Amino acid sequence: MTPTASTQPAAGRHPALTAADPDLAALVDAEERLQAETLRLIPSENYVSAAVLEASGTVLQNKYSEGYPGRRYYEGQQNIDRVETLAVDRAKALFGVEHANVQPYSGSPANLAVYLAFARPGDTVMGMALPMGGHLTHGWGVSATGTWFRGVQYGVRHEDGLIDFDQVRDLALKERPKVIFCGGTALPRTIDFAAFGEIAREAGAVLVADVAHIAGLIAGGAHPSPVPYADVISTTTHKTLRGPRGAMLMSREEHAKALDKAVFPGLQGGPHNQTTAAIAVALKEAAQPSFRTYAHAVVANAKALAEALLARGFDLVSGGTDNHLILMDLTPKEVPGKIAAKALDRAGIVVNHNTVPYDTRKPFDPSGIRIGTPSLTSRGLDVTHMPQLADWIARAVTAADKADEPALKTIRAEVADLMSAYPAPGLPL
Ligand code: DSN
Predict the structure, then answer these.
(1) Residues designated catalytic
(2) Cα 185 to ligand 1 centroid, rounded to whole Å
(3) Model confidence over 139-157: pLDDT tens digits?
(4) pTM of the model
């Protein structure tokens, strides 16, 4: 097959890969082009910097280093120990915590390590239900955390889409969970860590703040920090924090040993040192004044986009957003979330279909779509662009309803035109 313009490997960018495996190189090249040309609105995604990208592709990945700095099961750790210590020290300084573990492979293993540290199989654990905006690992039935533990779940109120803290408190005092998770994957509003902290204390539970979605906003001062209230903070490193795909657990010193033991040897083997290095770089970037500007711009863009969508007649869960994320309920438009998401994808606007609270449709074919502003803000789009984005979304949802492919194609060209003026970090196309 002759490669087309969009599959032609860029030999200059990946010379070794192109020589060794042109098929794979062509796919990487195509993905670079896709990420450059489209409007990426999945709220858990971002663009890492060229420095983070470089760090994650280094020879550090050749090294085994089970254990922790100064206490390894393999020799030759002169550099690896320093890499991990840098990452740990930067995490502690950025978030103002006493302890940080940067080894979890990703968010789900990080959360599993928390259960391993503080609960035993069969214990009761509590978190927000997945269809309400929680996460699989917060005790949802199909996850190991809802199978090996007895998961009890809270939600949001039907009428306003907000957490009912009286309900959370009643449930916690009735069920006495060992662990309470707060945070989630589809929560457009500020998380009241103080309220959760009070409930957890009253119930005698360990409070875990899963801040994966908002870690960058917290680091940049655009969302309150859970540090004074949570026993453990769990986060991925690749969402608003703009690092590589990985995770961290943070806590006060009193929980350090239990968490470290749970991550290794409890759950994982050797840490992915190339990822640890890239986390260190991302944490350094997140400590710069420009990152504070970025975090606040993410929120300003999301609020402006929410306003523009409301003005075009869309129904947003909780009526808007305080953070980087907007959950759109398309029920009134009579367009299923999946049909809308696929049409938007064809229009060059990448989102994911998502359940909305009290959804009457199935999780794989739900009523909503979830959108967010971390990626577009990384490319430099600002509040003045948000009415245009809302227009494209409205036109694409209408086109989805009518199966109007030419309209989607027109939007795709308009999107690509705008994005060509805003180069993506890490993608010198
Ligand atoms: N899969 C992530 C998200 O998209 O929110 C959560 O783990």
Answers:
(1) 64, 66, 210, 236, 239, 245
(2) 6
(3) 999 999 999 999 999 999 9
(4) 0.96
